[in-house]
Design a protein that fits this description.
- This protein is α+β, with helices and mostly antiparallel strands.
- The chain folds into 2 domains: about 35 residues; about 110 residues, Superoxide dismutase, copper/zinc binding domain (Immunoglobulin-like, Sandwich).
- About 15% of the residues lie in helices and about 30% in strands.
- Strands 1, 2, 3, 4, 5, 6, 7, 8 and 9 form a 9-stranded antiparallel beta sheet that branches.
- The longest helix is centred in the first third of the chain and has 33 residues.
- It is elongated and about 130 Å long.
- It starts with a helix and ends with a strand.
């Protein structure tokens, strides 16, 4: 009787254990393969034009034209009537400030080949954009764009600019107001799912 129970257990064990392993493998593929690994073979290309600024820097209003009070004519003098020429108003010339490069850096590879340029654009209003040009890296799941405090090490202190729009091509990300780029001085392409750095660019003042 004991031998029969042992044989039945071994038979079920040989069947159930491989089945369980296969099931775990399928679930792992669904969680990390289909929704993750397959993206490594699919490029997502973008081609954004230069960013458009909503804010404009403050301007100094032109001083109003000065007026001269005419001298009082003595009562005994009869002054012939004259028609004054209308004053000519010159409209102040306004120009749209052109964006300038405030900082820039070249991408270098970390765990995946990465290349291109990261540029910080501003127009004097306080609004700034991070722009990638000629950018290319591998694709992957949950890729994010971080501004990292390199002095803190790793990604323990960072500002997220959101999901990477594409692994190839020019693209823009608005930088939140008040972010000090002398502190958050490194652009990092970070895979949140696998805690993996794809590539980075150290920003240098222009």
């Amino acid at each position: 009787m004991f031998d029969g129970e042992m044989k039945s257990f071994l038979t079920n064990y040989r069947v159930s254990v491989p089945s369980a392993i296969a099931l775990v493998g399928v679930l792992a593929w669904v969680a990390f393969g289909y929704f993750g690994v397959h993206k490594a073979f699919i490029d997502e290309k973008v081609s954004e034009a230069a960013p458009v600024f909503d804010a404009t820097p403050p301007t100094t209003a032109d001083a109003p034209p000065s007026t001269t009070t005419p001298a009082t004519t003595p009562a005994t003098t009869i002054t012939p009537a004259t028609t004054a020429a209308p004053a000519t108003t010159v409209a102040p010339t306004t120009t749209t400030p052109q964006p300038v490069t405030e900082a820039a850096g070249s991408f270098v590879s970390r765990n995946h080949p990465t290349e291109g340029t990261a540029i910080v654009l501003g127009n004097g209003s306080g609004q700034r954009f991070l722009r990638f040009e000629q950018f290319e890296t591998d694709n992957g799941p949950d890729l994010k764009v971080y501004l990292v405090n390199s002095a803190a090490g790793g990604v323990s202190d960072h500002v997220s600019l959101g999901a990477l729009k594409g692994n190839i091509g020019d693209q823009n990300y608005e930088i939140p107001a008040g972010v000090d780029l002398t502190v958050y001085d490194t652009v990092l392409i970070w895979c949140e799912r696998f805690a993996s750095p794809f590539g980075e660019a150290t920003l240098q003042p222009a």
